[in-house]
Amino acid sequence: VAAAIRSQKIMTDLDVSGCNFGFSEAGELLEALSTCKGVTRVVLADNKLKGGDLARSLGTLCNNAELNFVDLSKCEISDDVACACMLSLSSGKGVAGFSLAGNYLGEAACVALKTALIKAWKADKRVSKVLYAGNNVEKLFYSNVMADDYDDAEGEGAWLPDELDISDSKATVEVLEAVAQIYENGDGACALKTLRCDNTPLGKPAGLGRLPRGAPIPPPIIATLMSGSCVREQLTAVTFHNANLKDAGATFIAQCVKDGWKVADLDLGMNEISDGGATDLAGALAVENAIWRLQLRLNRIRNDGAVAIAKALGENNCQIKILGLSSNVIGTPGLKALMQAVGGARALESMECDNPKEAVWKEDEFSAGAAQLATAIANRSVDKPSLSVNLGNIEGMGMASAAVDCGAVVTEYADKHKISTLGLQDCLDLYAGLRGTLALKDLESMLGGFGTAAGNSPSWLASADMRSRAVNVAHLQLSITKDRLTDWFESEADANVQELFLCVDKALKTPNGFAWILFKDAVSVEKSLKLYYEGHAAIYGSPFIISTIDADIESCEAGAATTHPGTIESELAGRAAEDLARKKQQRSDIDDAYAKNLEKQKSQPAAYGGSDMGMSHSNTLGGQNSVKTFDNGKPW
Q1: Are 348 and 387 in contact (CB under 8 A)?
Q2: Beta strand pairing status for 538-539 and 129-131?
Q3: Which of 207, 283, 219, 294 lies closest to 252, judged by CA?
Q4: What is d(CA 188, CA 184) in angstroms, rounded to the nearest whole number?
């Protein structure tokens, strides 16, 4: 790889994470990359880079390229190597961001990190993103005001990156106090806008046991960080995942938002927040705020909290674009309220409500919510942003899950028979709602070609007139035959079948459960659909789906797949003649078998109970068909 990089000199992005490289291999790659002027991103994560002089190779690269990001996370590097690497990253042309997460670095590396960030800032090459999770950050925010090289600007935080991840990094109360103090000292100069502090206790103070009844509840640990007004002005994106906030922490954060905290991206996942905290957060969304993303996955929110959030989505002040409620304990009322709220959520772009820990049991109520969601999607104006609603993996009964699995579009047949599969017409309607008019060549591509190969679709689908008197049939038993299906439509639906095209698996050459049926008139289509919507479309007790093929097709474009109507009619006539000949041959074979069986009866009367029997029962065609005949040999 290094040889190829040196010879081509055009590498811009190299990712060799998890390749089990040592420092010598990594150093060789970095030396080779230094010959490429356009390299911007290098990922060496999850390798074994401990020991060696990795910093020298990294320094050579930084001197020759302006890097956007360097990833050295989980590389087993020591504090000494990390210190040298950070010095290299802050030298040369600089780097916009880097990651040293997961290396278990100590205080020495933390001091070196601060020194490198300040050095880059003073050289007008400030680092904008630092991922330092899983390391010690106790010394990062402290300043030695007695040092000879101390700068007052150092205590104002202008050297800090825009985005900082200090998850799993022993961020104690004292560390949070130091962060808050930097914001206050800077009075607007602190550059830190996005803070990630996962797996760090930010809720109930340590050592606080059960309080006496009526005793005042002390503020959560996060109050230490949010104590200053500058923090609430400048810290606009936070991730406090698994921070033990619970309802008290959520309530405190909600109050901060009401008091003017300008947070826009708020992630409070996996914090054991229940209905109380969720309701308070919903109240914060109803007042003037800047939140466009709220992540509450993996909490304990139930129906009351979900209903409160759903109500807040319709408020004028609510600017939520992305809402995450996955893996909570939301049941039917909560899910129904959230589905109903989609129509009034003016800014919503994504809502995740999948994998709830509560099963859906109120089927009709849930289906009503799903139908309203479908209506909201259909009526969504074009000036609104695109919408994604995830309601997957919901446990429940019948239609409750089926309505969601098929995209919240509830067909009459699915409502009656609990079939979750959409018909072809449903798909065409969805396409029309999303994309508008359908090009004929796109319809051909969608249906696998018009008569191009056995098992795809018949050529007459290219004709608008013939599509108007045709249907698509799905969910058929694989053992179905053309004659049995034709008989059902002609006898049960009183339809006039002109041609039945039974689709087959291209590999196995056996029926795959789908069929196309062309009727002689449009009335037959109406008769078939009426029987289907009444719930009588079933063969051998197995229900199937009947769907029209009504699509708004553009006028034929140049190069679009077209077939002359006369050619289609000729093909139909030819296939009809072949089918008639096949049936005549079958009838002839049966008649011949009858005749042979009758001759056998006459030649062996004793074996068949005598010649004067009124009716005989015989096995013909090798014992496969049971035929009853009168004495004259004709079928009765």
Answers
A1: yes
A2: unpaired
A3: 219
A4: 8
Separation between Cα atoms, residue 278 and residue 304, nearest integer Å: 9
Q: What is the mean pLDDT of residues 470-481?
A: 88
In this predicted structure, the answer to whether residue 625 has a pLDDT above a threshold of 50 is no
What's the token pair of residue 162? 């825009």
CA distance linking residue 294 with residue 232, whole number of Å: 17
> Maximum Cα–Cα distance for the chain, whole Å?
129
Half-sphere exposure of 61 (CA within 13 A, CB side): 30
Please state, in angstroms and as integers, the Cα–Cα distance from residue 54 to each residue in 30, 47, 60, 100, 579, following that order. 9, 12, 10, 14, 78
Confidence of residue 453 (pLDDT cuts 50, 70, 90): low
Most confident option among 47-61, 274-288, 337-351, 478-492: 274-288
Q: How many CB atoms lie within 10 A of CB 321?
A: 16
Which of 11-25, 149-163, 556-570 has maximum average pLDDT? 11-25
> Model confidence at 378, in pLDDT bands (50, 70, 90)?
confident
Lowest mean pLDDT of 218-232, 234-248, 296-310, name the range: 218-232
Report which DSSP code applies to 460: G
Is beta strand 538-539 parallel, antiparallel or unpaired with respect to 542-543?
antiparallel
What average pLDDT does range 138-150 have in this prediction? Answer: 69
Say whether 617 sits in a helix, a strand or coil. Answer: strand
Q: Mind spelling out the 3-state secondary structure of 293-356?
A: EEECCCCCCCHHHHHHHHHHHCCCCCCCCEEECCCCCCCHHHHHHHHHHHHHCCCCCEEECCCC
Between vectors from CA 49 to CA 45 and to CA 55, what angle results, nearest 5°? 100
Estimate the crossing angle of helix 303-313 against helix 275-286, to 10 degrees. Answer: 10
Residues with Cβ within 8 Å of residue 524, at least 6 apart in sequence: 469, 489, 493, 494, 495, 496, 497
Residue 572 tokens, joined: 């139909």
> Do the strands 293-295 and 265-267 form a parallel or antiparallel pair, or are they unpaired?
parallel
Identify the sign of the CA torsion 79, 81, 87, 89. negative
Q: Which of 531, 517, 522, 419 is nearest to 475 (CA)?
A: 419
Question: Residue 238's beta-bridge partner residues?
Answer: 195, 266
Interior angle at CA 283, CA 390 and CA 351, nearest 5: 10
Confidence of residue 463 (pLDDT cuts 50, 70, 90): confident
Predicted pLDDT of residue 607? 64
Rounded distance between C-alpha atoms, residue 121 and residue 115, angstroms: 10
Task: Spell out a b/e string for 145-166, using b for 16 or more CB atoms within 10 Å of the CB, else e.
Answer: eeeeeeeeebbbbbbbbbbbbb
Give 127's contacts (C-beta < 8 A, 6+ positions apart).
Answer: 89, 90, 94, 95, 96, 97, 98, 116, 117, 120, 121, 161
Residue 371 burial by Cβ neighbours in a 10 Å radius (0-12, 13-18, 19+): middle
- Give bridge partners of residue 517 from the DSSP assignment: 471, 500
Residue 529 contacts residue 549 (beta carbons within 8 Å): no
> pTM here?
0.64
User: C-alpha dihedral over 105, 106, 111, 117, to 10 degrees?
Assistant: 20
Retrieve residue 547's tokens.
């769907």
Label each residue of 496-523 as H, E or C.
Answer: CEEEEEEEECCCCCCEEEEEEEEECCHH
